[in-house]
Amino acid sequence: MSGTRAPADGRELGERLRDRDLTAAPAALNLLESRAPEARAQTAALLAEVSPAVLGHEPAAHIIGVTGPPGVGKSSLLSRLVSHWRSENRSVAVLAVDPSSRRSGGSLLGDRARIEADPKDRSVFIRSTAAGARLGGLAPATRAAATALAAAFDVVVIESVGVGQSETEIADAADTVAVVLQPASGDVLQFLKAGIMEVPDVLVLTKTDLGSAATRAMSDLQAALLALGATDTEVCAVSSVPPPTGIEQLAQALENHRTRIDLEQRRRHARRRHALENFAVEHGERGLRALGGRAQAARWLDQQDPALDAATLEHALAERAGGAG
Amino acid sequence: MPEPPSHRLPEPDRPWMMRTYAGHSDARRSNELYRKNLEKGQTGLSIAFDLPTQTGYDPDHELAKGEVGKVGVSIAHKGDMETLLDGIPLDQMNTSMTINATAAWLLALYIVAAENQDPPAPEDKLQGTTQNDILKEYLSRGTYAFPPGPSMRLIADTIAYTVEHVPKWNPINICSYHLQEAGATPVQEIAFAMSNAVAVLDAVKQRVPQDLMGSVFGRISFFVNAGVRFVEEHAKLRAMAILWDELGRERYGVEDEKHRRLRYGVQVNSLGLTEAQPENNVYRIALEALAVTLGRNARARAIQLPAWNEALGLPRPWDQQWSLRLQQILAYETDLLEYPDIFEGSKVMDGLVAELLAGARKEMQRVAELGGAVDAVDYMKAALVESHRKRWQRIESGEQIAVGMNKFTSTEPSPLTAGADGGILVVDPEIEAERRRAVEQWRGERDQTAVDQALEQLAQAATNDGENIMAATIAAARAGATTGEWAQTLRDAFGEYRAPTGVGDATAAPSEGVVELRAEVERVSEALGRRVKFLVGKPGLDGHSNGAEQIAVRARDAGMDVVYEGIRLTPSQIANSAAQEGVHVIGLSILSGSHRELIPAVLEALREAGAEDVPVVVGGIIPADDATAMRDAGIAAVYTPKDWDLNGMMRDIIGLVAARHGVESAVGA
After folding, report:
1. Fewer CB under 10 Å: which end of chain B, C or N?
2. How many domains does chain B fold into?
3. pLDDT above 90: residue B15
4. Which residues of A touch B147 (CB under 8 A)?
5. Is residue A229 classed as helix, strand or coil in its secondary structure?
6. Is the pLDDT of residue A104 over 80?
7. Cα–Cα distance measured from residue B81 to residue A235, given in angstroms and rounded to the nearest whole number
8. Is B43 on the interface with A (CB under 8 A)?
């Protein structure tokens, strides 16, 4: 365990992740979550080591966002998915963003317990963090964590709770977004129809052991998607109670989505969004004004080297803002 | 014949059933204990099973490690049950079994052991009780195995079976006892227990013909608690009797008044028993016994009393004898049983009852609106954690007095704990190895084909919801299947379950002490770069999570990120979580006496996971010698029930993190 005074060596951790050393994950996360000033340079060094510029390609993992209202069975579903991926010998990292509200600054994180995994299996890594200020918000370090772990693991899952805002935020960090619903989630259907909620890449209906309620929910969902013209979105029906059903089909649907998209474009977009969000948090409205506003900054980012990591881009934004101001 | 005066009974009442909650190690040793207890004038048996038996694991299962024979007797198959009851004629005995998730199985073993006695005791002669109340296991006690749906079915099946075949059996004891232990107020205790009964009865209604519902209602009994506020506690029981009668009449159309009478057994409060000046507990227990005996209209049918030393460890036979004598003095020396109800017409009592009834009705309504007790488990659990938090705050602030603990603390040394055994029972650690060998031998010597077939039948019955599970369960018991095999077959069919922890919704009302703690947590977190992260873990099978929950909630209130994963974790799960989550400190809670085995196992697992530098503190019922040994083995601090100042504990924990990471201590600290 490293002490506080000397932050971990970001470069070394990045190299280990690049070499697919899964045991580097806990220390890497400790570093990425650190807000200590002396950790910033190390975080940047870590992210640079796993950037496409150094790797020569995008990190190979499939980054999957899983979100949905509380109580729909996301954790049971993840338990089944994790064991499915493990049966294919794929390593899995889960970043569980716990909805537990931050009162008094503290939080209660109970999500990892709900995901069943063999504790002795070193190819499964689960890390829980408290969500940001509002429901569905990602924890500050989640984007960086997903990027870093994507170099070492085959699958990286970002799990969060909420509907409406959360898919948008996760979509900025993940390759594929799955929204999980249960038969009684009628309000979500309304959100979809009203356009309050973006159409996710994959829709998952859980608790299909509930019989007729599930069949009805399934046809409602399909009708809604048809009306919205969202023909690409696959709808998967699953049941996590024994015997689980629909898990393989769901894994396949997630896979299908990934082969359909332009991965490089999506990852590039994610890094740029990540850089801009971090910059905005650090420098505020004033910093954004110095860049000519958010839209102008985004356009400028679009012209940068596509292989650059988020930390480098953020640094470039800061320099530019400093020069302009 | 002249009318007797209305303030006297024509003849004294018969005393209630007197029991001692007993059992440890293996069947042979427990059988010896039972025979001795019966010689001492005990009139019924109350069997305590160990945690592996209660949760459906054989003694050689990984999760059974350290728990075999600890808080009760280990029963793995019909052979064990026969030994346990050897020489005790079961057609005459009245046996209460504290068994829930695996109640159907232990009842089957009991039936099979009875038919194998010489002379055989047929099932329609058997008398006794299976606790069989799963909802309170989710809420408080933690020895559940299956998800709510299938668990309610198992309960309904045992009720449907016994009403027909074992008519003198109480198939379920709805427990309000453990709700009070988890912090329930009297209103919550009444309301949640009654709501729970409604959920059970509604489930049974689907599985028995309507004309049997009267008998079903009549066979349902309660297992209640009584705290030291004994006047209000007595009122609580009267209120329960009124509600129960009402429910029978209005909701289930039970015509026979006898069927609607509240029947209850009791174990008085353990939560209020103190480790400090433990001899004072004798008085507490005596006063609590009055709560359940004073008024004839709401008097207990069966009583078992805890021992004075429960907050120290497991009671010895002498400690239990002392508690039994209290019952006998109450029943045979005092004039308690000679009068009609002494509270009839009491303004105070009627007023208290009315208050409790109003509160309980409101709370029952709330549970009903959430869809009934099964769907309201999350709500009830959170409400209990919240009540317990408030109770703790009252003790910390001195508003609630616990004599010898937070007031009147100066004391002479107690001669009761001065003996070589420290005043408690220590289970021989060799028992576990013995039991492991014994169950392996049992498996080797039985007709394996018959067992395989029986388990196959059981699996089929489990997946067919319309079939009563008892027939296949009794057949598996006869064939020689083990407790672990029965439960695993059902786990495969029903799935595993983790109950809600209830901690997420507990509200934080900052006291002055907490505000100070927050500032310190902020300061240390700032220096660390990350918020102080604390893993609260419960290793082993012990489900008594109330203490761990309070620690988790307080640490959160103090500003820490708390990873709390609920009960029943293996050492490697805890170590793995600690490593992956990057926690700064670990707190372990164990109340089952298995700390000697489990703590070293967790430390070893932490080494394997590369997290040996993370400091570990331990809380639980831990004798002083064991605490010293633990500190020598590297545990940073040990807390026992006498350490009731949670803020002080939090200060220690933050200080520990600061010291390990080279953060300077606070000015003036």
Report:
1. N
2. 2
3. yes
4. 241
5. coil
6. no
7. 52
8. no
Is A152 an interface residue toward B (CB < 8 Å)?
A: no
**What is the reported pLDDT for B501?**
79
Active-site residue identified among B70, B136, B533, B538: B538
pLDDT, tens only, B457-468:
999 999 999 999
Across the interface, whether the CB atoms of B559 and A39 are under 8 A apart is answered: no
Enumerate the residues of chain A whose CB falls inside 8 A of the CB of residue B570. 119
Q: Is A106's CB within 8 Å of B557's CB?
A: yes
| Residue with token string 């990934």 | A258
Question: What is the extent of the structural domain holding B585?
Answer: 512-660
Q: Fill in the amino acid letter for A106.
A: G
Per-residue pLDDT reduced to its tens digit, B637-648? 999 988 889 999
Contact B572 A120 (CB under 8 A): yes
What pLDDT is attached to residue A3?
Answer: 42
Question: Which of A8-12, A74-78, A97-101, B621-625 has the weakest average pLDDT?
Answer: A97-101
> What are the residues whose beta carbons fall under 8 Å from the beta carbon of B78, sequence distance 6 or more?
B109, B112, B113, B116, B477, B478, B480
Give the dihedral of Cα atoms A257, A259, A260, A263; nearest 10 deg: 100
Question: What's the CATH number for A62-261?
Answer: 3.40.50.300
Q: Which of these is catalytic: B388, B544, B584, B595?
A: B544
Confidence at residue A183, expressed as pLDDT on a 0 to 100 scale: 84
Contact B533, B558 (CB under 8 A): no
pLDDT of residue A132: 67
Beta bridge partners of B130: B97
| pLDDT number for residue B669 | 42
Find the catalytic residue in B61, B77, B136, B178: B178
* pLDDT higher than 60, residue B522: yes
The answer, yes or no, to whether residue B244 has pLDDT greater than 80, is yes
pTM of the model: 0.89
Assigned domain for B501 exists: no
Q: Test A128 with B563 for CB contact under 8 angstroms.
A: yes
Residues B159 and B22 in one domain: yes
The reply to whether B512 touches chain A by the CB within 8 Å rule is: no
Which residues have a Cβ under 8 Å from the Cβ of B409 and sit 6 or more positions away?
A: B276
What SS3 state is found at A107? strand
Residue with tokens 């963090």: A129
Residues of A in contact with B575 (CB under 8 A): 119
Residue A4 in this model has a pLDDT that exceeds 50: no
Chain A contact for B15, CB < 8 A? no
What average pLDDT does this structure show over B268-289? 94
Rounded CA-CA distance B17/B29 in Å is 23
Q: Say whether B379 is catalytic.
A: no
d(CA A200, CA B512): 47
Helix orientation angle between A247-260 and A74-87, rounded to the nearest 10 degrees: 80
Place B585 in a pLDDT band, splitting at 50, 70 and 90.
Answer: very high
At residue A82 the predicted structure's pLDDT band, cuts being 50, 70 and 90, is very high
Domain of B110: which CATH number? 3.20.20.240
**Residue found under tokens 């063999």:** A118
Q: How far is B529 from chain A (nearest CA, A)?
A: 4
| Side chain identity at residue B336, one-letter code | L
End residue of a domain, out of B417, B435, B470: B417
User: What confidence score (pLDDT) does residue A282 get?
Assistant: 86
Residue A242 with chain B: CB contacts under 8 Å: 492-495
Q: CA of B390 to nearest chain A CA: how many angstroms apart?
A: 18
Nearest to A147 by CA among A236, A60, A68: A60
Residues in chain A within 8 Å Cβ distance of B522: 105
Domain ends where: B382, B417, B452?
A: B417
* A16 vs B: CB within 8 A: no
Among the listed ranges A2-11, B30-39, B375-384, which one has the minimum average pLDDT value? Answer: A2-11
